[in-house]
Amino acid sequence: MAACTEQSAPAGASTSAGAGNASNAGPSGPPSASLLSAPEPQVKPLLDQQKVNDAVAQLDGLVRGAMESTGVPGIAVAVVYRDQVVYSKGFGVRESGRPETVDADTVFQLASVSKPLASTVAAVAVGRKAISWTDPVISHTPGFALKDPFVTRNATAADLLSHQGGLRTGAGDLLEDLGFDQSYILSRLNQEPLDSFRASYNYSNFGYTAGAQAVADAMNMAWADLAEEVLFKPLGMTSTSYRHADYQKASNRALIHVPAGNKTWVAKYSRDADAEAPAGGASSSVNDLARWIRLQLANGSFEGKEVVAPDALGVTHVPHAVSGPPSTPAARTRFYGLGWNVSYDDHARLSLGHSGAFNLGAATAVSLLPGEQLGIVALTNGRPQGIPEAICAAFFDTAQNGAPTVDWFGFTAGVFQKIDESEKPKVDYSKAPAQPKAQRGNDFYVGRYANSYYGPLNVAVESGVLTFELGPAGSTTKFPLKHFDGDTFSFESIGENGNGLAGAIFAPAGDGAPGAPGSSPGAASSVRLDFYDQTGLGTFTRG
């Protein structure tokens, strides 16, 4: 704008103060009182207290409608407006079939809503000059390594907290499902293939965890202790923790549930996310999270006191990576900041948000409109079906328009159904071939197989059933094998990413498969587990 002013000014005309006045001139020259001297840096607030109050008044109905249509056991919601908690309430029960009710202090597992909490902790460390967003991770965590030495040397905390380190989506997640701890998983990331460094976006829990761990190392504290010391205590978030043990000890906690049909739910699983704590291991209540939302909307201050340096926190709120390129020229681009989804709504307002999803039974969401000083958080104790996302979207829609203009529950349910469909196995092992080939004798398959990523795999016969055993020493999991076709067997996948039956494909020596030198021609030289081979690391070699 300044360059244009200078170029268009007549010779000898002033381009300083006079140019600023000229920008207000109408067609005949005199300034117009209706014109601004420059464009507004952001959209002025479109909401007011009455609009927010009207939307809050409809929240009970929104939540109860969601519970009636899905049967989800429990929901808690809180809303912050202009630094005030204007709504905080629980609905339903903590555990299906039991009478204990959910309230605003009930502790839920947050899943990936842990990520924006974690980037807030990191911003505290950056504000205190213990680390900068552009410090190489390896300068604080010497053991950090990825497959490409250049990326290992140069990847920063900001790269990893914005999912731009190159790790594929889900890298390390299957190790967690098997029970491996954080140290083991982070030490194996150097075997994972990489996409383009800083030129790709892949949502990676353990890449994010490695970035947060560098922050903890820079502060010389364990991650859970650091978060408690610099964020939870200053904000009075007494029910919030990154330790799974603290969640388990909470007397007022919501158990996680999966659907059991006909709008019924069952608390079938436990989900310990300590291995990826910064990315998915936090637990909290909506009353606690309302305090954190107040901090976010107040640019790092809480009740008049600075907790996070505004400049450091601001870096987490701006786009760092394109997470959703526009599908058409008129569509809006979606971005990822540091632990936040960053977008701009149909009124050009900055929107910050994040969802959390445990397939084993938790769904959460937080949404902020910083320019409106408005935020909402919704927590549920049921497998993801789009419920908390719909509550947040419907609330903002109602605040703006007086009532929802979109069937948000139908829309988000459809999105999550598509996700579920996309994650189904490529081979349906529940349908045996019409004329399957016979399997060989069990001795062909029995033995010990090695893999540098997953560790050893042992195949044995137990009570006449062929099984394999895999996982951390002293805490392995046994998988019964069922014959499918020839040297291919099926087994049930497990954990957060389990998606039904998977395949174990044994290969004989000399069949183009890797094997130990001198492998017996009467024994399989390797076995490939297709469920664990998503990035090419799922072949185990006899030896």
Word description of this protein:
With 543 residues, this protein is α+β, with helices and mostly antiparallel strands. The chain has 17 helices and 23 strands. The chain has helices at 2-8, 17-22, 49-57, 59-70, 114-127, 149-154, 157-161, 173-178, 182-188, 205-218, 223-235, 244-249, 277-280, 286-297, 310-316, 387-401, 408-422; strands at 74-81, 84-92, 108-109, 258-261, 264-266, 283-284, 301-302, 305-306, 321-324, 334-336, 341-344, 350-358, 362-369, 374-380, 447-450, 457-462, 465-470, 477-480, 482-485, 488-492, 501-508, 524-529, 539-542. Strands 18-17-16-15-23-22-21-20-19 form a nine-stranded antiparallel β-sheet, with no helix packed on it. Strands 2-1-14-13-12-11-10-9 form an eight-stranded antiparallel β-sheet, sandwiched between helices. Strands 3-6 form a two-stranded antiparallel sheet. Strand 10 and strand 11 form a beta hairpin. Helix 5 crosses helix 11. The longest helix has 15 residues, at 387-401. The N and C termini lie far apart (70 Å).
Distance between the termini: 70 Å
Percentage of β-strand residues? 15-25%
Overall average residue pLDDT? 93
Low-pLDDT windows of residues: 1-26, 512-519
- Total DSSP helices: 17
Looking at the structure, what is the overall shape? globular
Sketch the major β-sheet. Answer: 9 strands, antiparallel
Instruction: Tell how many strands the DSSP assignment holds.
Output: 23
Rg (C-alpha, Å): 27 Å
Helix content: 25-40%
How do the strands of the widest beta sheet line up side by side?
A: 18-17-16-15-23-22-21-20-19
Structural class: alpha+beta
